[in-house]
Amino acid sequence: MTSKAVFVDRDDTLAKNVPYCDDPDKFHLFPGVPQAVKRLNDAGYLVIVITNQSGIGRGYFDEATLQSVHDKLKRDVESGGGHIDDIFYCPHTPSDGCGCRKPEIGMGTAAVAKYDIDVSKSYMVGDSNADMGFGKKLGCRKCYRVSEEYTFCDAVDDILRRRGHFLGSIATFFR
To answer: ω before 103 within 30° of 0 (cis)?
Structure first.
């Protein structure tokens, strides 16, 4: 059975961007993120973080440091009752020309293969052109671009509203 997912950028989507964050104590989720992730979990979506982390390739921090930041991310989401299903990251710099750095879709194709994800039932939420390009190239149903005015929580509301509208239409059809 195929899964559906919400692919999510990390910095300036789930948490304020701390350039080359090398300390979990500097990492803080935006308000409402843990509860919004829980709502996606409850609706049957995998929540998969897709993040470019060139600080590793630049030598600013190592993978163990990144793992400690991601462990804090997971703990903070779990404190609100939700869970992150997986985190995929690209450690390369933009000049490396890899196939995994967003907007390329290497991280996405790895997630799709690992979890048998149907991208036509999946969404991308992020703050940058690279995030939107990733979601479009991967074939996501819709991409949501967040900002200070339109947050991750707003995008989750819209994803779940779309889903509710679709399910409501089916219920009406079978009456």
So the answer is: yes
- 87-101: per-residue pLDDT in tens? 999 999 999 999 999
Give the distance, in angstroms, between the CA of residue 170 and the centroid of all CA atoms in the same chain: 28
What SS3 state is found at 18? Answer: coil
Assigned fold of 4-173: Rossmann fold (3.40.50)
Q: What is the spatial distance between Cα 126 and Cα 16, in angstroms, rounded to a whole number?
A: 12
Report the distance separating Cα 75 and Cα 170, nearest Å: 37
- What residue spans define the domains of the chain? 4-173
d(CA 121, CA 115): 13
Total residues found in the chain within this entry: 175
SS3 state at 163: helix
List, for residues 14-72, the tens digit of each pLDDT value. Answer: 999 999 999 999 999 999 999 999 999 999 999 999 999 999 999 999 999 999 999 99
**Paired tokens of 12:** 């300036």
Residue 1 per-residue DSSP state? -
Cβ–Cβ < 8 Å for 91, 54: yes
List residues with catalytic annotation: 9, 11
